[in-house]
User: Fold these one by one.
Assistant:
Number 1:
Amino acid sequence: MVHKLIELALRNRFIVLLISGCLFAWGIYSIKQNPIDAIPDLSENQVIVFAEWMGRSPQVIEDQVTYPLVSNLQGIPKIKNIRGTSMFGMSFVYIIFEDNVDVYWARTRVLERLNYAQRLLPQGITPTLGPDGTGVGHVFWYTLDAKKMDLGEQRALQDWYIKFALQTVPGVAEVASFGGFEKQYQLVVDPVKLQFYNVSLMDVMNKVKENNNDVGGRKFEMSDMAYIIRGLGYIKNKEDLESIAIGNYNGIPVRVKDIATVQLGGDLRLGIFDQNGEGEVVGGIVVMRYGENADKVITAVKKKMKDVEMGLPDGVKFHTAYDRSILIEEAIASIKGTLIEVLITVSIVVIIFLFHWRSAVIILIQLPISVAVSFILLQMFGISSNIMSLTGIALAIGIVVDDGIVMVENSYRYLSEAQIEKTKKLNN
């Protein structure tokens, strides 16, 4: 069989060269299309459902949120397992699908079932899907270098400007903010004054919600002109909040400032983010979308950050805390260097021991084609170019070189022996 295959290749050299050229071109195309990452994605095919009910204990969250969600999400097809986790004020449900299931098909099925399961949850609880990323999707971390701004102002800048800008980058699933304080108006209510003015805490909450709103009216026509009537009622400062009326006492309005102290503070924090022991910082984590090219996403994020930086306040700059593209570029440079070193070494070895440059050319041709075919297979099976796969290719190069040298040397020996026999016959 091997003899016939070799004979067929020798009789059809042009076709063999054409096929080799096509495979090399296909391999180059696969290299450009294959996703490049540093870490192989070994995470499970999962969809995360998140629900928030602040102020409730883990047991209440488990009984009234996590258990109803897990019970109603079990009927989704092609599910391997469902895991639920309850903590203070938050519930997480992890739906693990079979490996061959498309992640966006799975998210659609989960979203359909959530519309039915939501009616079993307490009022005001809206479960949402997590980002369409994986466990290794955190490809880029950055912090803000802003010495003249406090942590609350930095967090506001991150949440309301930088985050929205970076989320527009193709391939980015989410930009998660960390560090600093989330600004909020805080009402410190005096229970003695509530009892004196006969006002309940629920009245305070409802009145504050109702008075922080814009309302629309109808058109008002006058002198062939139409005017749109609006009621502007959004709170703009602490004084507006203090002036909200929540009831009356003997015909006198009772305002928020009469029963509570209003202050501007930060939301409850469960941790802090410290950078190199130099103090707290504010920043964000860029989460890559499922199946995207990490190197391209990071490059696009860096380009977008340069545009965003021009709109930041004076003295505010980005500082890179983690950049996976450095590891990716080093892995690619490693396999390139290995390939070049092998080509040079093999050429020298073949030329020195065989004194035949055409034998060296044969090996130099087969190496790039073998590497190109490897990337074709990676692309066909949906495997990214990462440290593991590139290391495997680098190790396989040595085997290909050994096989090439043995085959070329063996062919050269047989051809030499045949040439010697032919010469002897001619001399005789």
Number 2:
Amino acid sequence: MLTLAEEILLLALDEETGTIVDLPNYQTNAMLVAAVLMDLALQNRIDTDVQNLQVISQEPTRNPILDKILSLLPVPGQTQSIRTLLDRLSEQGEDIRELALCQLIEKRILKQENRRLLWVFKTRRYPMIDNREIKEVEGRLHDLITGDDLPDPRDVVLISLVNICGLFDQILSPREWRRSQARIAQLSKMDLIGQQLSKSIQEIQRAMAMSSLPG
């Protein structure tokens, strides 16, 4: 099974160009950290309430992405604000992204191509080798959003993260998107980590908007 970080990167991949959708750095990094935290919760390494997170086991997961973040969390018995952790760990987002892409390459889902733009600037692309995984993820999310079934906790997180990143336009038609906004919002509220991520991003966006106003 793919990690949530791997699934998010696949959903953010433009299959025609082999490039990842361009998002603000903080948003991308915090989103990937949130994905890892939820995978750790699903593997019973951490527990969360509305605001706080606590480690309940430091046993390695044998996944380099998850174990990297697990090693940076508070020791068992200590609690810390989810918002604080997202802010502190967001600097790990680039490493998570690279590890996730490497794992997708190792699984022969993507391949890496290095090119030069105008013979000077290096560019990196990730063409799809096997699109079965992405089609499965997109199909699963499409059916959950347009249907009435209750998603499992893992898909609740994926829905929340996809919504935060604005990636549903790659899964739903414009008409489906308009009809499904209320359901997406409702399902996203079930993800506690995603709620804190959304609030953090909104606060940063407001602060940036205020700083750009004429003095």
Number 3:
Amino acid sequence: MKVTGVSRTRMAMLIERAERLFPGGVNSPVRAFRSVGRPPIMLERGEGPYVWDTDGRRYIDYIGAWGPAILGHADPAVVAAVVAAARNGFALGATNPLEVELGEAIRAALPSMERLRFTSSGTEAVMSALRLGRAATGRTLLLKFAGGYHGHVDGLLVEAGSGVATQAIPGSAGVPDATAAQTLVLPYNDPSSVTLAFAEHPGQIAVVIVEPVAANVGVIAPAADFLEHLRETTRADGALLIFDEVITGFRIGPGGAQARFGIRPDLTTLGKIIGGGMPIGAYGGRADLMELIAPVGPVYQAGTLAGHPLSMAAGIATLAALTPDRYLALDEAAARLALSLAAAAADASRDVAISRVGSLLTVFFRPTAPLDGAEALTSDRAAYARFFGAMLDRGILLPPSQFEAWFISMAHGPVELEATVDAAREALQQ
């Protein structure tokens, strides 16, 4: 974005410098704001439910660092824990006691993770879990669901072919056809397509990976018995079931989606909240599967900065703050926000549907909440872009895409929620 004139702001000048350094001026594509047709912003600090841009403007924040900031930004206890850990040095090159403490806290909340390993990102956790799944089953095919995002792993950056249970085609340049062909892409919330895929590929599917609550095509709750069908079908065929809980883990409850819906997957991937905003990922599951990981078993995976003390400290402090009463209050706040936004849309005669699971929600610009990724993609993206811009102008920072979740934090109080609804009422009338 080339900005001219003598009155250029600090943010405009910083963005121009960024564009000379990084592709699109950003280090992750959604930060470019291109899908909402607005210039990007540059954020300098955050506190509680607020963030400030480099020109000093304050916003009520619903990006929440894309999920980790469940306590709000710069929570004092988390900051103190990171500072204390930093005084002891950063990466030390050997196992740190904080790794044990955070690992035990995670396993206590998610008993399906009998053994686990930390990584530096959610993508890395998913990549490692897939490798493990293939090694454990001796199979090669992967099965995922349209609209599900599991990081920028080659085998999962794919799009569906022409049929319900066909093999996939590359969804990104640089992904070989042969790699994409090892992935089946099915509609989310469609158990019959799962049954068909396993019937057409008996004994060939290594893993089924699913966001138990779809949250990367907007928030879509699992239909009744969908997750149960995945569990039963994979178990009967000898395939493994992986829950990608990078977003839902510790977000929709202490035990994530698997506790909320009563399903025990074979493997789970985590990220975001378990690091309290610091870089982190983790994967784990059944002990017999995790014993295949080096140095015990033949599946190699390593990470120089895995289990970084600062990430461990932030995660420990964050999880310690996530008490049952705070989860209940967060869920109630999100429910009130969703109902108020729906009422504002109805008053403005707008075709808007709000989908919510816990403190995740999406305002879909379509008449009804979608059941799968294909339905979500029929949303009016131009209408969302206008809504996004009108909210931004009123000091409310939403995800810059129709297909991202809003992340509500425990720092969002009645004042922030009321201001959000007031802004939405004006924006929807505009």
Number 4:
Amino acid sequence: MTSTVPNLFKVPELKEKLLFTLLCLVIYRIGAHIATPGVNVDALTDFIGSRGSGTLFGLYDLFSGGALRRATVFALGIMPYISASIVFQLAGPVFPIIEKMQRDEEGKKTLTQWTRYVTVVLCVFQAYGFAVFTESLPNAVAHPGFAFRMTTVLTLTTGGVFVMWLGEQITERGIGNGMSLLIFFSIVERILPETVNTFEALKTGTLSFPVLLIVLIMCVLVVAGTVAITVAARRIPVQIPRKVMGRGRIREGQKTFIPLRINSAGVMPIIFAQSLIIVPGTVATFSGVQWLKNFAEYFNTTSVWYIVSSAVLIVFFAYFYTSIIFNPVDLAENLKKQGAFIPGVKPGASTADYIDEVLSRITLPGAIFLTFVALLPIIIQNTLNMPFGFGGTALLIVVGVALDTVQQVQQHLLLRQYDGFMKGGGTGSGGGASRVRFRR
């Protein structure tokens, strides 16, 4: 890896992609610090810091890198686009026409356009809800009213659409998945403030050095485990039979495999579980009804009910989301059409049942690991009195995006080496190849 880093900017195409990606990320982070007109940022920050940690605002603030609590023009972040994408992804198994469009190239382009339209609609509604919510806070808005709401809707909607466009530009012209990279850098930006808070806790004596050392060792182990689970896969062997190519030539059979990831669902089960379990706290916070507040106490992050409910929901959504994004029947049909088969398993329905059985077995350890990583920040904060929580959604996103980006960079470097090899081979053997054709 150390020998690869100096070569990143030696490849012109890769250099342009990296510089373009960095430029877009800088623009995104600058916009995440430009405040929306008419909002008292201090009042909003105090509310989200004190009572918003267990609500939807806390979850949105995590993915926006603190832009929501600062009431910036990019306060909505990339979440409206992600929500719209999830809607169409979940609608595929329900509506056959959408499932058909997901398989067709032109259909994918149409769904992408529909996702953009839905993103704009979500931005409008979320921006209006943010304006109304901000007006409800004491001393948060200097001049509340219709003009403030319309200004906020226009500002935040424009910011949300621009963030969507920025992510698409990174995907097309940069390195990695643009939407994921925007979330990645929003999360990474919080590392420096959390580090400062940790050193302050050490100075004041609220955190001891042995406890910090134990947590750091746990961090290293959790990161290593997260990387291992992210790349771990069960390989199902596949045999491709021999075929007669013509003129008596026979192509030898090939052996390949189907990689089934242990964590096929990625971070989505945690996001679904957190979005569902924080609904009572969000409703209770803004309704003011006493019985709702009492009910929401059962789902406080320090309660046993919260931990148990989160664990059950994460395991459930791990199986649910895996069944949506992975269809064993389609995979079995594709293998059958290609003449390939799994040794010892009949093609068709038996192959689909076998793949489904293997997938169900390997999903369980992945779901258990997701549950552990999601609940780790709560355990650390409650038991060790740490000023920060390490793990959860943020860790999985950071690890997953980092691995994907590094893999794409390596693919560009390997492609460059392959092109150089072909050019070098062509200069040395081109004349020989032409002489062979001439003799024929």
